[in-house]
């Protein structure tokens, strides 16, 4: 992806809400966003086997580069040369290239803390996989990682032991095999044989074990396994949803809390979270018009944001409009919350805007484009040096000044003086639970223990924003998480601790007319299953005169 929203190894491990670089647009669904098919089989493809597909493109042992060459960095920012996992052994019969690629990606995610959306494209490139093979490898990787918790229950039940007690290479191969058996149309015999071949090449001692486990899994279909393994819906509804829809229990609980404990709606959200999102473009104001851009790229104008275009397919990074800076890849929800900051009425001066958490620059790209139209200047603050450079790239040619500094110092830092900005955006670092569609492994990596440090940061950043905004000016507080403690609690606490008097603006009035299901206000929570966007939260505060 060439757009500014590309995520890299993330020092803050915050909300990776942006479209994944390898993400391909999926066909747009007509009509309002709706719950997709339940827990049935996902689209797979008939297995052709390595013989039918030929061996072209399979790298020999000599072609294999070290893990460091692909996938680059892990979450800790370490190179992958320290990887300890086993690749296929020379001379052993490897499985087919698509499955091999998926195995390598899943293993890198678990072994090296890699991000699937970064590591998989590298592996596909290295293995020279394209077309159907690349699509199959992507489906296997993303599907396996999304459904991991449920797959692990199945593998453990079939193996008669917890997955923690299975050798990691065999465990990852079995997870991929179970996914093929239960979630795709790959014929059972092919899923079993290919998985056993894969285990033979990565964990030869476990070949017989893998064969037995795969055969046991293949004895029952997904519904039967779920019926056996999911807690009873009447006794433990959250646990039941957690297994049925492959989300950790604490995340299901958090979503249900925000959705008023409506478990049917919670299920619709979980189902939507398991779908790859449609890729959205933002037609940059003054540089492109959304309707014209939709024509140009063969997409559809967005349902809500005046800047949004839904892509129908293809690689967004290759589009001329992206390459020449007329558009960038950005979820429609992100566009809406950035535009809401600009829609809030302010009296008097309106030329100094601040983006307090700007990297990698998606919203700064939109705010900067409007600043150019309105004769304003945007100061974009980002604490991480390399992300600040991404903001510069995303806002090239716009009236944007990028500062690499800590946003918590706003209102004290002479470069960000108190009471000097007319509009301030706090797009706070968060758990990213609102964009689980985009990062298949994220739901299993995130832990409740991530919340306290993030919420402290959120409150401090909001307090700094309230110090930096002038009386009568507005602050938009945004997260890509619907978790109550990151939204309502952080806003209330941040505002209280700032010592600055401020009032809520009804954020619903700042969104396009006719948007459905925005709740009672004054804050707004967007949802994938209601609006087709990431689950963005928006609160708008006006500093008292
Ligand atoms: C949710 S992301 C912002 C996304 C961005 N607004 C966009 O639309 O592309 C949060 C950003 O805040 C940055 N950040 C974290 N702590 C910060 C701090 N104390 N001051 C400034 N930026 C910070 C992170 O590095 C990260 O780039």
TrEMBL record:
The active site is at 480 (nucleophile). Keywords: Methyltransferase, RNA-binding, S-adenosyl-L-methionine, Transferase. It comes from the Bacteria. Residues 32-58 have a biased composition (Low complexity). Residues 255-544 form the SAM-dependent MTase RsmB/NOP-type domain. The keyword Membrane does not apply. One of its GO terms (biological process) is RNA methylation. S-adenosyl-L-methionine binds at residues 357-363, 382, 406, 427. Pfam families: Methyltr_RsmB-F (PF01189), NusB (PF01029). CDD domains: AdoMet_MTases (cd02440). GO terms for molecular function: RNA binding; RNA methyltransferase activity. Residues 1-25 have a biased composition (Basic and acidic residues). Coiled coil: none annotated. Residues 1-102 are annotated as: Disordered. PANTHER family: NOP2 YEAST -RELATED NOL1/NOP2/FMU SUN DOMAIN-CONTAINING (PTHR22807), RIBOSOMAL RNA SMALL SUBUNIT METHYLTRANSFERASE B-RELATED (PTHR22807:SF53). Belongs to the class I-like SAM-binding methyltransferase superfamily. RsmB/NOP family. This is Putative Fmu protein (SUN protein).
């Amino acid at each position: 992806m060439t757009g500014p929203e590309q995520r890299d190894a993330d020092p803050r491990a915050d909300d990776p809400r942006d479209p994944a670089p390898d993400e391909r647009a999926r066909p747009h669904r007509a009509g309002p966003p709706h719950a997709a098919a339940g827990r049935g089989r996902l689209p797979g493809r008939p297995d052709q086997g390595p013989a039918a597909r030929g061996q072209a493109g399979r790298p020999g042992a000599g072609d294999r580069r070290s893990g460091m060459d692909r996938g680059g960095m892990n979450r800790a920012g370490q190179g992958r040369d320290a990887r300890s996992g086993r690749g296929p052994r020379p001379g052993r019969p490897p499985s087919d290239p698509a499955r091999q690629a998926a195995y390598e990606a899943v293993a890198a995610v678990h072994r090296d803390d890699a991000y699937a959306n970064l590591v998989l494209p590298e592996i596909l490139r290295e293995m020279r996989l394209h077309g159907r093979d690349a699509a199959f490898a992507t489906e296997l990787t993303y599907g396996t990682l999304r459904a991991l918790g449920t797959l692990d229950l199945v593998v453990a039940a079939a193996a008669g032991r917890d997955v923690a007690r299975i050798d990691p290479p065999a465990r990852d191969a079995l997870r991929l095999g179970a996914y093929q058996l239960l979630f795709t149309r790959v014929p059972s015999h092919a899923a079993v044989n290919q998985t056993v071949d894969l285990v033979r090449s990565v964990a030869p001692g476990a070949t017989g074990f893998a064969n037995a486990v795969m055969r046991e899994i293949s004895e029952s279909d997904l519904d039967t396994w779920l019926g056996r393994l999911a807690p009873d819906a009447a006794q433990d509804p959250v646990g039941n949803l957690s297994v049925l829809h492959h989300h950790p229990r604490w995340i299901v609980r958090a979503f249900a809390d925000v959705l008023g404990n409506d478990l049917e709606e919670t299920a619709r959200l979980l189902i939507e979270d398991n779908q790859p999102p449609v890729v959205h473009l933002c037609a940059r104001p003054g540089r492109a018009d959304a309707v014209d851009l939709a024509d140009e790229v063969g997409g559809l104008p967005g349902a809500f944001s005046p800047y949004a275009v839904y892509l129908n397919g293809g690689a967004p990074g290759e589009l001329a409009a992206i390459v020449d800076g007329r558009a960038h890849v950005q979820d429609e929800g992100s566009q809406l919350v950035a535009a809401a900051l600009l829609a809030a009425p302010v009296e008097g001066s309106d030329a100094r805007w601040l983006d307090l958490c700007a990297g990698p620059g998606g919203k700064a790209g939109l705010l900067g484009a409007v600043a150019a139209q309105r004769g304003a200047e945007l100061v974009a603050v980002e604490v991480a040096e390399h992300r600040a450079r991404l903001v510069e790239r995303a806002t090239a040619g716009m009236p944007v000044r990028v500062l690499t500094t800590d946003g918590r110092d706003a209102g004290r830092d002479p470069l960000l003086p108190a009471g000097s900005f007319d509009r301030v955006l706090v797009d706070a670092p968060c758990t990213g639970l609102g964009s689980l569609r985009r990062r298949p492994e994220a739901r299993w990596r995130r832990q409740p223990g991530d919340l306290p440090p993030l919420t402290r940061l959120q409150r401090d950043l909001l307090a700094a924003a309230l110090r930096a905004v002038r009386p009568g000016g507005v602050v938009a507080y945004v997260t890509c998480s619907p978790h109550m403690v990151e939204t309502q609690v952080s806003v209330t606490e941040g505002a209280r601790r700032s010592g600055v008097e401020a009032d809520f603006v009804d954020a619903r009035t700042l969104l396009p007319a006719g948007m459905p299901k925005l709740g009672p206000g004054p804050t707004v929570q967007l949802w994938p299953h209601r609006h087709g966007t990431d689950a963005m939260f928006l609160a708008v505060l006006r500093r008292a005169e």
